Amino acid sequence: MKRLRVLVADDHNLVRDALAEVIQTTQQFEVAVANSLGATHEAISKSGPFDIVLLDLNMPDMKGVPSVEMTVRMPGAGAVVLFSGNAPRDVVLQALAKGARGFIPKNMRLAALPNALNLVASGEVYLPASMLGTPPDAGQPGVIEGCVAQLSDRETEVLRLVVAGLPNKEIARRTDSSEVRVKMHMRMICKKLAVANRTSAAMKARELGLC
To answer: Which segments of the protein form a coiled coil according to its record (predicted)?
Structure first.
C-alpha cells in the first residue's frame, strides 16, 4: 500500500518532532519536516509531491491567509491543513475559502492525529467541532471532526428518509437506487457520524440538526 507523504511545518522543534514521531508510528505515513514557510515551500518544490502539508499559522515568516493560499497553489502541496494552537474562526474559514482542507488544533490528542490525516487524504475537510456552525463554502465534499460530519447530498437524502422511519426498500425506491446502494450509504453515514447503526444515526442527525 502506498504510504501517504506528510510535511509537518512548525518552527517549534519539540512540537514538530513530537508530531512527526506520532505520525510515523504507523506504516501509513512518510514524514518530512520544515521550520518556516520558506523551508516549507522549498521542501514542496524539491521533495514533493506531498499528500498533506500541516502548516503552522504562527511561524515567523507566515503572513496569514495569503501565505496559506500561496502554499495551496504550489504544485505538489497536496492537501494543506492549518495546524495551530489558536486560530480565529474567521481566519480558518477564509483559509478554507482559499483552498485549505481544514484546521487541526495543537491541543488535539496526538493518538487521534493519524485518523484525522486519513480523513483529509480521503477528500474530507477536518475541523474542530467548535467551528462547525454554518458549514464553510469551500467546495469540499465534507467536514468531519470525530462524530460530527457534513454529509454529501445523497447521504443527507438517505439519512432524512431513515429519520422518517422508512425501510431500505422504500428508501431505494424513492431515491431511484438499490437496497445494496442504500446499505452502502448507511455504512458511510454511520462512519461519518461515528455511530454503530441506523437508529443511532437517526438520533445523532436530530441532535446535530443535520436533518
So the answer is: none
Per-residue pLDDT tens, the chain, 211 aa: give them: 678 999 999 998 888 888 888 888 878 899 999 999 999 999 999 998 999 999 999 898 999 999 999 999 999 999 999 988 877 888 888 888 888 988 988 887 777 788 888 888 888 778 776 665 444 443 343 444 443 446 787 888 898 888 888 888 999 999 998 989 999 998 888 888 877 788 778 777 776 666 5
Give yes or no for a contact between 110 and 123, defined as CB atoms under 8 angstroms apart. no
User: For the chain, which residues make up each domain, given as ranges?
Assistant: 4-129, 153-208
CA–CA separation, 206 vs 175, rounded Å?
21
Architecture of 153-208 per CATH? Orthogonal Bundle (1.10)
Superfamily of the domain at 4-129: Response regulator (3.40.50.2300)
Beta strands 52-56 and 4-9 are parallel
Fold identical between 4-129 and 153-208? Answer: no
- Reduced to 3 states (helix: H, G, I; strand: E, B; else coil), residue 80 is strand
The answer to whether 32 and 7 are in contact (CB under 8 A) is yes
What are the C-alpha distances in Å from 104 to residues 87, 114, 146, 201?
Answer: 10, 12, 12, 25
